[in-house]
Amino acid sequence: MVKYIVNRILVTIPIIIAIILIVFLLLQVLPGNPIQVMMKEKVNQAVIDRVTEQMGLNDPLMVRFGRYLWGMLHGDLGHSYKLKRPVTQLIMTAFPNTVKLAITSALVAWIIGIPTGIISAIKKDTLLDRTLMGFSLVGISLPVFWAAMLLQYILGYKLKLLPISGYSTIRHMIMPAIVLGWASSGSIARLTRSSLLGVMKNDYIRTARAKGLVESAVVLRHGLKNSMIPVVTMMAMQFASLLSGAVITESVFGIGGIGQLMVSAISQRDMPLLQSSVVFSTMIIIIGNLVADILYSFLDPKIRTQ
Amino acid sequence: MKKLLAILLALAMVFSMAACTSGGGGTEPAPADGGDEPATTGGVVYEDGFPENVLRITYQAEPESADPACTTADYILMMNCMDTLVRTETNAAGENETVPSVADSWEVSEDGLTYSFHLRDDVKFHNGEGLTSDDVLYTVDRMLDPDRAAVNTSWMDMIKGAQAVLDGEAESVEGVGIIIKGDYDFDIVLESAYAPFLPCLSTPAWSLCNREAGEAADEAGGGAMTSLYGSDPEYFCGSGPFMLDEWVLNDHVFLKTNPDYWRGANKMEGILIRIIPDPQTEKMLFDAGQLDIFDLDHALDQIPVYRDDPAYANNLNVKTVLGTSYLSINSAIEPFTDARVRKAFQLAIDRQTLIDTQYYGAATPAGTFLAPGVPGYNPDLGPIPYDPEEAKRLLAEAGYPDGFEMEIVQTTDSSTSDIEVNDAISAYLEEVGIHVNIKQMDSASWYDLRATGGSPTYRTSWTADFNDPDNFLYQMYGSSSNKRRSWNYQNQDAIDRLEAARYMVDPEAREAEYAALDELITREDAAMCVLWHKQKIRVLQSRVKGFVPMWAGYGDSGYYETSLELGE
Amino acid sequence: MFGKRKLAAPAVTTNPAPAEGIDWIPEGALTPIHVEESAEAEIAPYQNTWEKFWSIFKHNKVALVSLIIIILYIVICVGAPLFAPYDPVETNLANGLALPSKEHLLGCDKLGRDVLSRMIYGGRISLMIGLFPTLVSMTLGAVLGITAGFVGGKVDQIIMRIADICMAFPSLLLAMVVSYTIGPGFLTIFLALSFVNWAGTARVVRSEVLSLREKEYVEAATSIGVKKWVIMLRHILPNCMPTLIVMLTNHIPGNILTESSLSFLGIGAQPPMTSWGLMVYQTKSYLDRNPTITLAPGIAILILVVAFNFLGDAVRDKLDPRLQEQ
To answer: Residues A78, A71: contact at Cβ < 8 Å?
Structure first.
């Protein structure tokens, strides 16, 4: 088990290095001079040339990459061209907002998703099952920004139930969490249901039934445990993907998270910020996958015994 | 089952820890000052947690910096927290004039090379230090410092010795470009007699910095290029009516009123600038009373909504922008090499209808590039008429009876209304046979393309930095911009005259020369397709009193004159 | 489904967990692919894939309705010139923001263009983005997945590590990079979506292949010296088809949603043409004054995506290969 986990972590390291390299190279092909973008309509050639030179943007590719890596090893991710602040500071300010959004959305997703899935499985093929599954499917199918916009308009503006924008309190987070959580809850509910139904076909369940237990007791006491294995891993992965930044939801609700940071950095060609935020968000996904894999192997006895 | 529970618990703990760290890190937007109790006024509960007597405005993206060396566009912080030597103000007659600010009086030598300034002696920086000639010198040296990689150097490079500092050959312009004669008296010497130097001093780029604070900020940031001056309230230091008090990234900036301001303290407690990227959100917040001023440029389609709403109809603030919207013409691209084609292009667009339908009347059709109010503007020329028949005739005469195809560049960050206007313009051009292909590009790529001189037509607007025709025409067709803005204007004689007019000392002759050049370039040569002069419409909450929009009609304004009418 | 992991596990020492069944694609917006096991699915082992496909609709009314909706969408959008009442790009400023009426069933946008016509034409883009990049990425994913699974060893390692990287990269950002580099347009969206989605397909196909590889007929073919690529083409590929079809029905709605997000970022459909995503984005400020023009395209996306998802569910219930092992 330990060997497996260590092995899994070791495999991740070259992937992370590859990603740092790929992101760096990929961003080099982007046309556009960040200084020119900063200058906007003030197109003074002399100033642009001079500042570009002074900021070291004319240095050869390898020099810049070396500088970037060197800084990274020392915990210095450079300075944002546009916002004139250390990139570390910008990411560390944005990340808590993304974390907040991720936690609240994940909670919404789990609180809705898991019970929905269980009820659907117990009441399989009834009207209730179909309704719940239909509800989940709509959640998966919603265009996120459209739903966000409508919720904001109806709940925030017309009914004045919730704050329209911002993220300072829990109340602010409810709407964005519903939008993202609904979509994720759909996947969870469907997976819970199918996984539970799969488990319910096993012999020990038949035995439990034969003992005369009520169906819901059978499900909750015997079926749920094993059926949650894939669900928990999926939850971990979903959470990681939420942590890596929900660009659209963040921008509709004005949440200054990682997603927004990346989008603004790319349009400004703010390379130090862009590089680091992309690597950061990618690493979260990779770590999330890693955690999911380890969880999976931990939970699933069949893999553990190997 | 137990194991599963344990894992779920562990997960929950990890998450709540993440939540705690995010809450305790000091980086999280916590309701400042006002504490947990939301302020209320007239039934409005302020969800931002700030007190009632705070002006609430928005910014669409994080302001880049409060440091004049660091931004060429986000001037809001400088305009409210810093002072310039002189100010431009719109007087009762609607004319823009240069008036004293920190500089009480000045004299200009006859050759137009030496400006002698006398400072007020009662101006204090936010750190308590008095503003002296040395701070002016520091402001200039700081901007020109090659280690700083400052972006606003073009406002100062006409000073004698400035280029040497920029090139790293000299440390300072002291004794060459700026001669200090006393704590409050100094001369600025120019390289050549740049005529609009005085109005140029009123731009936010010339905001005055404090030497002590500036040096401390550089040191704390680990160098001039990474200075904390413009980003950290602790190190920022201006002398303006408001002080940078709190800056929560991605959320808001709070400016606190400076009680010791030399013109007298503003009566509000401060200004809250909320970062709201989405105009639809901005509208909803305004309607909910959470914002005091809503710039309708962000959401043109709300103009009729507020104009027709009796609650707001009297609260609209209309300011004619000192600037011009135009479609560029790249004279190097066929068939725009032919002046007749350019003229046809100008005539094919029905400006008035577009203004009425797309801008709800909030603009006036333009006939020349110089805007009304700029010296040299000639009202007699009138707007360019809409004459599709004449346009067709000109096209036929130029050899394009069946029209031609052209491209219009549109950046991907264009607002919806910009996209709609482009579509509407394309429809007009189609009517005379010019088929438009809209080419979408992201702005950074497009800036690159434009700088090579190869950009097809694009639509944008120019707003005055200072009130002088040089800031209009030279910025477009001067030798350094002609290609970079993809004009490729061919009339070398006109370009040379533009260069010469910068240094004409006689104001009347100079104004006449610019009037002639404006007509030559925009009408006779039809080098640009001017469209309209826009109005900036803001809707204010009725509690906002005394708001004076920035003289040129920028989105950024100083709010020194503004006050709030409070509930009981 | 748990029975099968036993087969797959030995071959996947470095990458065991994200095996079959669960969606390991990290985009929250995309529809996950996971095995739904249906108790009553009892399919004759040698039934032809296509026969199975048609048998889906015999008993499943929801699936049938979904299929009809999708076909209707496709017919209307492909035949846009026949169905659209107006020219979608013809402006008439006098009609700006006209409310729904007999002449303009869904009203007009600010330039007086008929919203219904624009929706019919805009659907072409949305559907094309849903279909074509999916087909490309599925093909790419299938080829690489089969190669990785069947050849194994270093090739497998390299392909799967690249897949890991692709899956971890933020897809919207990638689309922006591509779009900014080669300019926005259909090709951009096409490249970006294809690039992101192949990895998930490759992963699932690979694990599928790993189990197929152990099957007797493959072993038999190998032992009599049949060439590798022939085995892949003749024996492995056909057996992967059901999985691929299931994934196809899941990726299509995902891509339609992604396109609407891209439009939101300004790199989706290019004006004067439009897509539903772009229409929602461009008309959101009229929600107060003329809600139809904002709601209609959003509902159009929703219905289409729901239909694809229902269809996907039905197809999966019938075709999923894992069901045959029970």
So the answer is: yes
Region at A238 (left for phi over 0; alpha for psi -120 to 50; beta for the rest)? alpha
Q: What's phi and psi for B103, nearest 5 deg? A: -85, 120
- In the predicted model, what is the mean pLDDT of chain B? 90
CA angle B206, B210, B213 (to 5 degrees): 135
Highest mean pLDDT among A200-214, B116-130, C23-37: B116-130
Question: Domain extents for chain B?
Answer: 80-214, 320-535
3-state SS assignment for residue B331: coil
| pTM given for the model | 0.85
Amino acid at C264: F
**ipTM for this prediction:** 0.85
CATH: 3.90.550.10, 3.30.200.20, 3.10.105.10, 2.40.30.110. Which one for B320-535? 3.10.105.10
Closest partner CB to A82 (pick from B49, B64, B275): B64
CATH of domain B80-214: 3.90.76.10
Structure confidence at residue C11 (pLDDT)? 27
Which residue is closest to C267 within chain B, CA to CA?
B412
B309 touches chain C (CB under 8 A): no
Calculate helix-pair angle for A144-151, C276-283, nearest 10 degrees: 20
Residue B22: band (very low, low, confident or very high) from pLDDT cuts 50, 70, 90: very low
Closest in B146, B277, B485 to A254, CB measured:
B277
Q: Identify the CATH number of the domain defined by range A87-304.
A: 1.10.3720.10
Q: Tokens 């002088």 identify what position?
A: B468
Among all residues of chain B, which has the CA nearest to that of A102?
B15
Give the domain ranges of chain A.
87-304
Q: Please list the ranges in chain C whose pLDDT falls under 70.
A: 1-50, 52-53, 319-326
Whole-number Å distance between alpha carbons of B216 and B222: 10
Q: Do C281 and B416 touch (CB under 8 A)?
A: yes
Task: Inspect the interface and report whether the beta carbons of B427 and C111 lie closer than 8 Å.
Answer: yes
Nearest CA-CA distance, residue A235 and chain C, Å? 11
For residue A301, what are the CA distances in angstroms to A152, A221, A230, C97, C261? 45, 18, 13, 62, 40
Of B11, B251, B443, the CB nearest to A37: B443
